[in-house]
Amino acid sequence: MKIAQTLESLPAGGFVFDLDGTLVDSAYQHAFAWQQALQIERLYLSLWHIHRHIGMSGALLTEQLLRLLGCEISTDRVERLQQHHAQAYKRLAATVELLPGALELLRSLRAARIEWIIATSGYRRTAEHDLGLLELAESAVVSRDDVQHAKPNPDVFLLAAMRLQLPPASIFVVGDSVWDMLAARRAGMFGVGLLSGGYGAEELERAGAARVYEDPADLLAHLHELGIRV
Asked: CATH assignment of 2-26+97-226, given 3.90.1580.10, 3.20.20.70, 2.30.30.100, 3.40.50.1000?
């Protein structure tokens, strides 16, 4: 009886979801928007190079792209490129759709009274359209606006855990990039990778993913593998 009471007192697992490439099919639009941002500055980088850094915070991603190009990194240039990217992504946002099973997954967790929240490295103004597709309440999102450092730093995930009022060790982080998995590992959380952002299973596993699924629909079909019953 004492063991049963102890187990019942333990916090139920919660979920922290990345946004781009995890719940909405936007990873490649972001890569294209970054390419357009570079072109405005008369710089060119192949999309595949850019895609390898999608999931990082905007400032860190910008600096990485400039390093690849061998360009001088200045605060002004980084800020300009981020503004160009935000404007370019806004033009592309109408082409973004939900990934298969995204709404069903969130609704199933909510129906089972399992807490979840979204934590994105993007600024809220950039993610506005994508969040609208999910019909989320303001309190259900942690964004780049809320933290000093974004992924691969663990700040957004740790703040998400505080908002959920759950210990990090009880939380599943669901993301599509190696940067999500690295940040989850640093936060002491359980990483679950999705292939829907374009990274491979082995890459996600090397970065810390304990389980990998195709997309939200596939995760929903296999929640029992995480010990989650809905």
From this structure: 3.40.50.1000
Half-sphere exposure (Cβ direction) of 227: Cα atoms closer than 13 Å = 8
> Which of the four pLDDT bands, split at 50, 70 and 90, describes residue 158?
very high
What is the CATH architecture assignment of 28-95?
Orthogonal Bundle (1.10)
Q: Does residue 151 surpass a pLDDT of 80? A: yes
Q: Are 203 and 85 in contact (CB under 8 A)?
A: no
Identify any residues that bridge with 119 across adjacent strands, giving them in sequence order. 142
Cα 113 to Cα 105, 110, 151, 180, 187: the distances in Å are 12, 5, 28, 25, 24
Structure tokens given for 4: 């049963």
Average pLDDT rounded to a whole number, residues 16-26: 96
Angle (nearest 5°) at CA 35 between 30 and 38: 125
**Domain positions in the chain:** 2-26+97-226, 28-95
3-state class (DSSP) for residue 114: coil
Picking from 43, 21, 39, the residue whose alpha carbon sits closest to that of residue 30 is 21
What is the pTM assigned to this prediction? 0.90
